[in-house]
Amino acid sequence: xxxxxxxxxxxxxxxxxxxxxxxxxxxxxxxxxxxxxxxxxxxxxxxxxxxxxxxxxxxxxxxxxxxxxxxxxxxxxxxxxxxxxxxxxxxxxxxxxxxxxxxxxx
Amino acid sequence: xxxxxxxxxxxxxxxxxxxxxxxxxxxxxxxxxxxxxxxxxxxxxxxxxxxxxxxxxxxxxxxxxxxxxxxxxxxxxxxxxxxxxxxxxxxxxxxxxxxxxxxxxx
Lengths: 106, 106
Prior knowledge:
globular; alpha+beta; Arc Repressor Mutant, subunit A; 5 helices; homodimer; 3-stranded antiparallel β-sheet
C-alpha cells in the first residue's frame, strides 16, 4: 500500500464531511435500485424523517453524488438518482459497512 | 447489493465516529509498515502534532484497531501496531480514499 499522507488525509476528510452524517450511506445504497421520487425514497429509508432526508439529499447533490431530475408535468415529477460518482462509491461503502458490522461491537 | 438500512446505518455510524476525525486513516495506513514507537510514528505521519497523535492513538486503541505494547526495559519501549481488526479495515479505507481523490474536487 502506497501511503501519501497529505493527499490521502485530505481526500478522506472530504469524504467524511458528508459520509460521516447518519443516513447518507443508507440513502446512497437505497438509490442503487434506480431513480425514485421523494415519497418513495422516504418510505424505503425506514425510520428517516422527511426533513432529514431533505437535508441529506441537498448535501449529496452538492457533493455531486445524487442527481435531482424534474420531469415536466402535469403533474411535475421530481426524482432522485445516483450520479456516476455516487455509483462508484458504493463498493467502498459496502466494504466499510461489512468491516464495521464485523469489527465494531454494536 | 442487499440493503439492510438499520444495521448498515448503525455500523457505518460507528465507523465514522473515529474514522471521520482527521489523521485517523493516515495513522492506520502508516502502521501497515509494522510496529513503531511514538516518535517514529510522529515523524512518519508528516504534519501531525504530538498531542493530536496521542489523542488519535488513544481513540484507535479504544476502538480496538491499534495495540499498544510496552516492552520491559531498560530502557522501556512502547510500540504501536495494527490489531487484526485494524488490518482488516485497510482495504476498505484505501478504496474509499481512492474514490474520494477521484470524485471529490480538492
